[in-house]
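__Protein archive entry__

___
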Amino acid sequence: MQLLPIAEQLSNAKSWDEFTRTLMLAGKKLPAMPEHLQSDATSVEGCESPVWLVLLNAECSKDEYSKGEFVAYSPSKVIRGVLAVLLEKANHLERRERVNFDFGAYLHECQLQRYMSESRGNGIKSVIRRLQVL
């Protein structure tokens, strides 16, 4: 499985501190989601912390070969870091690839699964489901 830059940095982290620092920096670099897009319609249910996720250029995304561009936001620094990893990959994939992509295995490859609580993990599963249906 090809890891993209953020995921690769996480997988190569030698310590908890390095991993956490990398995750927090990734979250800080996550492009800002305009406030008008943070609505009930874009909210991801099942998350411990609020999460909003939207696919821009959605009218183009119906084509299985299109990509569109995901943007997301959470006030949680940890979740923003996880969102950065997920969006980096999702925005790299065409729709037909994204629908069947194993994001859980991807997170496992970059060591994220072992650092997430069960409740955070359940919320991230909700985010992944949304990534695959949009």
In short: The chain has a mean pLDDT of 88. The first strand starts at residue 52 and ends at 56.
